[in-house]
Amino acid sequence: MIALTYRIRPALKRHRKLRSPSGWSGQNASANRHIGKQGRAAVSDGTTPRVGVIGLGAMGLGTATALHERGLTVVGCDVAESACRAFEATGGRCAATPAELAAQCDVVLVVVVNAAQVEQVLFGESGLAHALAPGALVIQCATVAPSLAERLGARLAERGLLMLDAPISGGAAKARAGRLSVMASGSAEAFDKAGPVLDAMAEIVHRLGDSPGIGSSMKLVNQLLAGVHIVAAAEAVALGIRMGLEPRRVYEVITQSAGNSWMFENRVPHVLEGDYTPLSAVDIFVKDLNIVHETGRELAMPTPVAASALQQFTAAKGAGFGREDDAAVIKVYQRLSGIALPEAANGEGA
């Protein structure tokens, strides 16, 4: 098994959040886009791959824009018309369906939300697998169960296609800056073909193994910690407010203390601004922590702390906050304790 980590660029300070529309990335689209059957593409003979990005939400749009700005030929695709328009406004091009995109690309990133969307994008009526040329590469970035990643890789291999199981992390701002962390596994051939794309989109690439499933396993470890840290941050800030502390002072002190975490530092500003515009929605962590729970159950591995965080996100979803930013989990504590949370200065926060 290969287990390498390589840093592509020197690390920068964390970026502030970026607002982006989304389609396959997490928001319901108002309309589907349609086009007729597409022929199979020819794999480019050039050294620079033609890249497709399916799912132009906060992460996908940022990634597609970063790739485009670094000189790669990029075609986007999203069921939300507004997401495609946003990418086109940066100088990118959009295809109407995954199949149309596949006819123009030899490397395709799938940056959608869930397993159902991944399977539809790959194997649906207008899916990638029907139109990509043999030898083309799918870089699967969505958070899915490791067992599903393994099955997807096998199905694509049957069609002569490569797959890199490559979940991403870092948030929308790092996606836009081309400084994501990538947890990847796949064949040496897949890594070789993905090289120019990973160079343009990632600050660091963790090369974890030679087959799909390993990257997704690592992403579940990350999502367990991320979800727990978001809930812990919400609970800590809520307790501070309940004790009469000013929330901005809580943020200032904790970010300079041992209790700090990346999620505390990144998410609490959303609470302070009273702005719950979704970058990563509550619904995402309901999904991801459910995958953690199911994977633990299959392995007879208890995950009680993750289960507690899942219940808080589920409560937030049940209270109507599912499509808000995941920092909105603090509103569960607000409802239970009656604390006053900061409001958006312009009155536009969710």
From TrEMBL:
Residues 50-206 form the 6-phosphogluconate dehydrogenase NADP-binding domain. Pfam families: NAD_binding_11 (PF14833), NAD_binding_2 (PF03446). Belongs to the HIBADH-related family. L-threonate dehydrogenase subfamily. Its EC number is 1.1.1.411. Residues 213-333 form the 3-hydroxyisobutyrate dehydrogenase-like NAD-binding domain. It comes from Billgrantia desiderata. This is L-threonate dehydrogenase. The lineage of its organism: Bacteria, Pseudomonadati, Pseudomonadota, Gammaproteobacteria, Oceanospirillales. Residues 17-46 are annotated as: Disordered. InterPro entries: 6-PGluconate_DH-like_C_sf, 6PGD_dom2, 6PGDH_NADP-bd, HIBADH-like_NADP-bd, LtnD, NAD(P)-bd_dom_sf. GO terms for molecular function: NAD binding; NADP binding; oxidoreductase activity, acting on the CH-OH group of donors, NAD or NADP as acceptor. Residues 22-31 have a biased composition (Polar residues). The keyword Phosphoprotein does not apply. It catalyses: L-threonate + NAD(+) = 2-dehydro-L-erythronate + NADH + H(+). Keywords: Carbohydrate metabolism, Oxidoreductase. Catalyzes oxidation of L-threonate to 2-oxo-tetronate. Can use either NAD(+) or NADP(+) as cosubstrate, with a preference for NAD(+).
